[in-house]
Amino acid sequence: NDSALLREVFRQTGAHIYLEAPDALIVGGGLVTVHTVDGGQRQIRLRNGTVVDLDLPPISTTVLDAGTGDVVLG
Questions:
Q1: Longest C-alpha distance within the chain, in Å?
Q2: Which end of the chain is more exposed for a tag (fewer CB within 10 A), N or C?
Q3: Closest residue by Cα to residue 21 from 44, 50, 52, 1
Q4: Measuring CA to CA, which residue among 57, 58, 66 is closest to residue 19?
């Protein structure tokens, strides 16, 4: 369950990597949801190439529009 190892395996298969941090990430329905325990600076890479820089508080959940990167809830 090493998230860095899993990201590398997925990267080698051509999967899109949204986030390098070991946070919980759910994508679907036009939304990207990030839950972080530690918080801090995060860079989300959307499938369309948009990069969103966020400063997330500890123990928080943030919901982004998957197309624009705009914060919908958080």
A1: 32
A2: N
A3: 44
A4: 66
